[in-house]
Amino acid sequence: MSIVTRFAPSPTGYLHIGGARTALYSWLHARQNRGRFVLRIEDTDRERSTDEAVAAILDAMAWLDLDHDDEIYYQTQRFGRYAEVIEQLLAEGKAYRCYSTAEEVEAMREAARARGEKPKYDGTWRPMPGKTLPEPPAGVDPVIRFATPLDGVTVIPDLVKGEITIANTELDDLIIARADGTPTYNFCVVVDDMDMGITHVIRGDDHVNNTPRQINIFKALVEGEVGDHGRLPYYAHVPMILGPDGKRLSKRHGAVGVMRYREQGFLPDALLNYLVRLGWAHGDQEIFTRGQMIEHFDIANVQGGASTFDPEKLLWVNQTHIKASAPADLVGELRWHLARFGVADTTDPRLAEIADVQKGRCKTMKEMAEQSLFLFQEVAEYEPKAVKKHIKTATPDILAEVRDTLAALDGWDREALAGAVRAVAEANALGMGKVAQPIRIALTGGPVSPSIDDTLVLLGREATLARLDRAAAAFRSLKAG
Ligand code: GLU
Question: Which candidate in 94, 120, 161, 251 is catalytic?
């Protein structure tokens, strides 16, 4: 059996962390089995679906690089198909037209409640052997109801939660098409999962209640049992993610949209690594490459209980990924963040080198970009605190000496540059730090930057000499004033 999974978001907002994890689990399950991963936009709720939300979801999926197979399916483009299946169910007597008004249905539910039963439609319009149906009222458009089995149980052998059994008497005769002919959610999902050959439905456990309804509709359309050679899919309901306060993760907890994490400087692979571990473990391994996730992930090993989002751990995972990344793999995100800081030149050939120098020093890509801005922008201000601490009366002369020594060098390589700075320090009987800090402040405006030789190499000869000149003059007038 070839595995087919799907991610089926409703485009009513951004892709949030919980959705991203569901998408990841589905994607991993497909990829590790050399199966197919389908992306389906469930946009039948036209009032709540927006084009912006579709775009936001697709952007986030692209950024996470959870690539899908086939074209993207949109439920709104499949209304013809849903109508066809509804006709088929009507013809086979597995669905029926119901003319009860909303008030009548409410009265039936009320009556059931009064009898101490579950509020349900009472089956007035359901055809039964030997039953005479009422005459359809003129001028009323009926809804279509699915004829749910009247007895027996529906069993979900859930891959995550274990076996869940529901008595069919608990289930209503679900409306599958409204009076205006539009199909309803649970029905569309089943037609899609059937048509797309989905073998594994992996989704949030907020859908557990829908599953028995969907299984019954499925069984009305194909023969088989759940997981039966892919005719009916397996189901895996993934528990929700809680915020650090134990409540369901929501906007209250700060960023929940995936792209907010990009803005904060997380790497897509780090975010996925963090998410895969939320509810799944492989021994005590914490750090996974994409390849390792694909190799080791096991949907049957996902835990049934909720998991708690831990921002500190996410940051640690991100830092670990940044450190372990090949510099070339960081260039894309570095460039993106630099652009957000206003650095327009995105083709700078130094980016890989910058990433190489900075990757051991930053927890996020945003931080990396921020710490590298001095390479792209003139120093706007010398940080007053740093100036107070490190700039002495003799500093302008030292900087001038450093400038002349560097200017006299033939090459501009790390060794020569470090040697030159060291020579100035020794000639003035100063420790390296006493020379390096003023140079840093002169070149970057502040006391924090990569090692002095890395800083000089990245900044280049021309900018270095100009900034040393400018700083020497500025500090001279400062000290004179
Ligand atoms: N469209 C549903 C949602 O966004 C998912 C339905 C499913 O996965 O079956 O919650």
Answer: 251
